[in-house]
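Please go through this protein, sequence plus structure tokens, and consider how the sequence yields the tokens. Keep your notes short.
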Amino acid sequence: MSSGIEVDNLCFDVYNDVKTSKLKFVIYKISDDKKSVIVDSTSNEPAKDKDGNEVAAKDDLYEEFLSRLPKDEGRFAVYDFDYETEGGRRNKLLFYAWAPDTAAIKSKMLYASTKQNIRQKLVGISSDVQATDEEELSHENVLNNLRSQFR
């Protein structure tokens, strides 16, 4: 069942920047008025703490990406994931559906019912990552899943 929440056009523009390697990641959220999916954060924006104050970015971009996902609220994201295989360096565009166990039930239901609406409009995604805790988001876990999918 769809939530009826629309995807803001800026979401597609920023997604295309990730797709063309201008950005490493984009994080989306459902707007406060629950009417649209909007851009929450991108890899070229300064890192901020919970109070909105700028802080030093982490050296590892994947760690920086993970640090921007809230501990108790859902998010969608696209990450340009690089990794090594026996055949050489690879990269895949990954769609993330983050629904932490600590999020409110109503919020998790809203993100779950909106996921397909945004996901189907992002052409070129290689794989999906659905996560409810930090372990499922770990670089190692995502890498192992990719290696098993794309041998």
